[in-house]
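Reopening this one. Same input as before:
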Amino acid sequence: SMDLPLRYKQAVFCYEELILADPQNYHYYTKCAEIKYTMGGVANLMDAIHYYSFSLELSTVNNNRALFGISLVCILSHKHTYAKCRPLNIHRNMHFQKLHLLIINRLSTN
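Same output, byte for byte:
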């Protein structure tokens, strides 16, 4: 059987192909973001933020999944920054905190 990281990479590749075939389908961006989030690591979390953002650009109506996903990435980024004590990430972390609060407010009004 294949290892999980390879399967995740293959899944991302498949969804990226679907995005190329139908770039207006926001569901594909959300699924790709969720896989990247599941893969973990700073680079994948940053990719997840971008995919969630593209999804929200295409559809803000009933797209709570992307909003919630960005919120989760913000929380994880916050924990990762302080766990590693990397002062260079403080500006990015403050941005994620503000983004997280905006999303929580948005989700609570839906």
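So the earlier flakiness isn't reproducible anymore. For the record, DSSP finds five helices and no strands in the chain.
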